[in-house]
Design goal:
Length: 327
């Protein structure tokens, strides 16, 4: 009888744990205030500094309807290290069984600053998805504490990297995704996430690194106010400062990245948040080590590369096509 009860409880635990593996609470991004172009505008008009004319110029109704008709956009939660994390994915609606290469998008910011809302999903991320890619991303732990109790704390390149790594297993459960064919696309802090994740992931074919730091210590010389972010987010930062910064600086451990994994470095020359010298320094080290890479600097470009978006998406898609869609 005791053996039966032990087996019974172990079975229940197994079922419970399995139920919490994978994608949970999935819902379409095109819901509520974002169900239609009109409701999106009405919602946006409640926000400070909303410019309707500029919004319509960039995102007319025809563009919204095309994306809603052709893209599957899903918000979901998933479990990592006992925490509930928010994620999302975008992929073309398919009428065949063609496998889609997997792009993991790593956002910038920290905690809820940089949270990927609907506007961001419909911008650069959707641009990639529309070209035949499954794009999946994490909001990272600590970004959703306002409405998820068990959301954890952002460690800015600590255990939150597990939130990125877990996306590969999640993607395997989504139909027609080629999880053996992966690219990491990071922006700002997300570039660090990409490098850290690449050390632990298999099948990463390439990284696209947009406006990212390579040396956290030297970055503080240009932007010392970021030390407050590190103090608030990084565990043991006060007592282990040099080591913690080195762990988050790819330039210190380039040799630990997957061999022969091409890296596209993109930066704006007038970036005030992450100085362009960061990409220049890393490119020099990659050249010294004969590591495959390409450096593209947009003259006059800022951190968001607002005035270079068409060139950026063309550059990114051509790069991804070259390494994830071999001829």
């Amino acid at each position: 009888m005791k053996l039966f009860l032990v087996f019974f409880y172990l079975t229940l635990i197994s079922i419970f744990c399995h139920a919490n593996d994978g994608i949970n609470d999935s819902r379409s991004c095109f819901r509520g205030s974002f169900e239609s172009h009109e409701s999106w505008i009405a919602y946006s008009a409640t926000k400070k500094n909303f410019n309707k004319e500029r919004f319509l110029a960039y995102f007319p109704k025809s563009k919204f309807n095309e994306r809603k008709d052709t893209l599957e956009c899903v918000d979901f939660t998933y479990q990592v290290d006992g925490l509930t994390i928010e994620g999302y994915y975008l992929k073309p609606k398919q009428h065949d069984n063609k496998k889609l290469p997997l792009v993991i998008f790593n956002r910038g910011g920290n905690a809820d600053f940089g949270y990927v809302g609907f506007n961001k999903k419909m911008d650069f991320i959707a641009d990639i998805a529309t070209h035949g890619y499954m794009v999946i991303g994490s909001q990272y732990r600590g970004a959703s504490t306002r409405f998820i109790q068990n959301n954890g704390n952002d460690e800015f390149g600590g255990n939150d990297v597990n939130d990125v790594i877990a996306l590969v297993t999640l993607a395997e459960s989504i139909p027609n995704v080629d999880s053996a064919n992966i690219a990491l696309v990071g922006w700002s802090r997300g570039v660090m996430q990409s490098y850290l994740a690449a050390k632990k992931l298999k099948n990463v074919k390439t990284i696209v690194a947009i406006a990212g730091n390579a040396d956290a210590e030297k970055a503080l010389v240009i932007r010392p106010e970021m030390e407050r972010v590190y103090q608030a987010r990084i565990p043991d930062f006060q007592s282990d400062r040099a080591n913690q910064l080195a762990q988050r600086s790819v330039i210190k451990w380039v040799d630990r990245l997957p061999a022969d994994m091409p890296i596209l470095l993109v930066h704006g020359s007038e970036d005030k948040r992450v100085n362009v010298e960061q990409s220049l320094m890393l490119a020099a080290v990659l050249s010294e080590q004969a590591y495959p890479h390409k450096l593209v600097i947009f003259a006059g470009g800022n951190h968001s590369l607002d005035k270079n978006r068409s060139e950026l998406i063309e550059l990114t898609i051509n790069w991804l096509d070259n390494y994830l869609k071999p001829k």
